[in-house]
Amino acid sequence: MPTISAADKVNPMPIQLAFQDENLRKVCESTVSAKRKYGRLAGPSLHARLADLKAADSPADLVEWGFAEFDQASKDRIVIFVDDCYRILIAANHKPPPGTPGQLDWKQVTRVKILSIERGNEN
Fold first, then answer.
1. What are phi and psi of 89, to 5 degrees?
2. DSSP assignment string, the chain
3. What is the pLDDT of residues 32-88, one digit of tens each?
4. Which has the closest alpha carbon to 27: 13, 17, 15, 12?
5. Does the chain have fewer CB atoms within 10 Å around its N or its C terminus?
6. What is the pTM assigned to this prediction?
7. What residues does 104 pair with on adjacent strands?
8. Rounded Cα gap, residues 28 and 49, in angstroms
9. Is the dihedral of CA 64, 70, 76, 80 positive or negative?
10. What is the Cα–Cα distance from 56 to 49, expressed in whole angstroms?
11. Are 79 and 69 in contact (CB under 8 A)?
12. Rg of the chain on CA atoms, in Å
């Protein structure tokens, strides 16, 4: 029977999502709600980006792929670009967070919390 190396494994467990509040959960889990709130273009883009996040081995992959960047204000958050108008702000949702104290290891993050969805030009 062939053995499977770590390099051959594809994300064995999708990234788990949590939400800052019930309204965010509703928008992120319902394409209809997303279209109503963010429009017919941004709504589906939001769901496509969330699918990318869930399929990634870690949120750091989205940064590597150019879909996101580390938040300039806080290195323990990532900003995911939805389209030209919106972005998703996420944080690791581990207790304790992976890595050394004061240094989050985003490659080990498998649980994230969606903090907000905001216009791209807001800070």
1. -105, 125
2. -----GGG---SSPPEEEESSHHHHHHHH-HHHHHHHHHHHHHHHHHHHHHHHHHSSSHHHHHHTTSEEE-SS-TTEEEEE-SSSEEEEEEE--SSPSEETTEE-GGG--EEEEEEEEETT--
3. 999 999 998 899 999 999 999 999 999 999 999 999 999 988 878 999 999 878 999
4. 17
5. N
6. 0.84
7. 99
8. 10
9. negative
10. 11
11. yes
12. 15
User: Among all chains, which residue has been given the structure tokens 């965010």?
Assistant: 24
Tens digit of each residue's pLDDT (9 = 90 or more) over 83-114:
878 999 999 999 888 888 878 899 999 999 99
114 or 13: which leads in pLDDT: 114
Which tokens sit at 16? 């788990």
